[in-house]
Amino acid sequence: MTSSTPVAAAAADTLIPPVLAEVVRSGFVEGHHRGSLVVLAADGGVELALGDVAGPVYPRSANKPMQAAAVLRAGLELSGERLALAAASHSGETFHLDLVRKMLAELGVAEAELQTPPDLPYDPAEAELYLAAGHVRDRVTMNCSGKHAAMIAACARNGWPVESYLAPGHPLQRLTLQVVEEASGERVGHVGTDGCGAPLMAISLTGLARAFRSFVLAEPGTPERRVADAMRAHPEYVAGTRRPDTWLMREVPGALSKMGAEAVQAVALPDGRALAFKIDDGAMRATGPVLARGLELLGVEAPVVSRIAETPLLGGGERVGEVRAAF
Predict the structure, then answer these.
(1) Which has the closest alpha carbon to 213: 142, 275, 151, 260?
(2) pLDDT tens across 59-116, in order?
(3) Residue pair 276/213 in contact by the 8 Å Cβ criterion
(4) CB of 261 within 8 A of CB of 273?
């Protein structure tokens, strides 16, 4: 049987994710972004599934709330802005870097112990200012530095090896895997390495949405609820002043939101409604329109939804099109 037969063609079609966003320039659709998305009802049931929402994906930094809960389970005492920063992909703004350095001093962690790769601030505007001031790539500047500081401190508190804190078999990472599996309600499908060097645990989009749902519905005082509460109370430390996660958590009461690299996003509302999606080609420009449409499907009515959706295309310095949701 050749690949051109109807049966083979139908089988191939099942492997192609649906179009979640389209790129429109001068009234002409010049491209598409495919992906998968799941929406959960308040009772946790799947209300909408587009594409493959059951197969494992790397949530990337959308796993950070679970990593932060793990350091709390390990006995590290963090709260407020510091706990939010432990779950952050911070923009590298001055207030982020100041608090990371303060956390390192408070926790007794030397900057040299951070195993984050040296990097520029995540936010492009902040990166320009940083370079203009004569600075170079630094471990503290990398957007995961708050998480790494917390991981190292948790290891020191328990007498666990610090130099190997990123090894998948390390006690802290085994604890993190347990948190991920409990929150998502499924086994981790694969363990890889994230951009910051930390173990990266693959779960399904449905599992990711359920994990976020479990954090907002957790009992007050539990590690999961403490992380959710810190992120929602201090959203600017989770992301930055020019980032959709911050806008959403600031303007929609009780929302928990976290993006991940390769165009992953998860959101939960305080009543248990939740969503998660991944753009197949990793294009971050598609996340805003898809997130905004997902929020509409969750019933969120707030001006911030339109702000998140805004993804203009420029021609000659002027707006000539947009990236928009296609579902």
Answers:
(1) 275
(2) 999 999 999 999 999 999 999 999 999 999 999 999 999 999 999 999 999 999 999 9
(3) no
(4) no
